[in-house]
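To the wet lab folks,

You asked to see what we're planning to order before we commit. Fair enough. Below is the target structure as tokens, and below that is the sequence we designed to fit it. If anything looks off to you, flag it before the synthesis order goes out.
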């Protein structure tokens, strides 16, 4: 083999070793930290405090109503009030507060009225509204035994409110329904 062939072969072998991982072609590179931070999930919470029943005279009759011993008469009404605390944690957290369940009873239709609401500290209704921040609210329900009930209709009748509950559902951030404070 002549010198020229030996030199070309040695050069080719050297280049092949460099390209094949036997060395480096000196291509530069660098890196930098993203510093992207940490994502933390939010939360929502709902708590119902102790409720109170009051008759139309304003007397606390909670113990009697809960024990099934309060005997309502035509013209009387009973109002149940209960504090409800909503906790919303999250940058875009929205939630809807609603009431679930329905009272059940044996009173004759037309002899009674039932009404209810959930309000904020200013008296604004938040029932079935979209909430955007934590807060304390007051839930209430009023049962009125109408004064115009005739004869002895509905003696011994009852109405059970024990299956009433509150529910807080997150509303997706992309939704844009009516909001409440």
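Sequence we intend to order:
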């Amino acid at each position: 083999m002549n010198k020229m062939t030996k030199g070309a072969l040695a050069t080719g072998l050297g280049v092949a070793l460099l390209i094949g991982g036997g060395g480096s072609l000196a291509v530069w590179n660098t890196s930098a930290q993203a510093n992207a931070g940490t994502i933390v999930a939010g939360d929502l919470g709902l708590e119902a405090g102790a409720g109170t029943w009051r008759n139309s005279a304003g007397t606390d009759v909670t113990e009697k109503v809960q024990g099934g011993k309060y005997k309502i008469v035509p013209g009387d009404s009973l109002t149940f009030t209960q504090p409800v605390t909503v906790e919303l944690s999250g940058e875009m957290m929205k939630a809807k507060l609603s009431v679930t369940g329905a009272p059940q009873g044996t009173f004759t239709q037309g002899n009674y009225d039932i009404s209810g609401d959930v309000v904020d500290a200013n008296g604004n209704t938040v029932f079935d509204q979209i909430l955007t921040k934590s807060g304390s609210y007051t839930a209430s329900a009023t049962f009125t035994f109408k004064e115009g009930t005739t004869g002895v209709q509905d003696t011994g009748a009852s109405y059970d409110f024990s299956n009433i509950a509150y529910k807080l559902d997150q509303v997706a951030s992309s939704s844009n329904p009516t909001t409440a404070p």
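Structural context that might help your review: The helical segments are 3-22, 62-66. Residues 3-22 form the longest helix (20 residues).

Thanks,
Computational group
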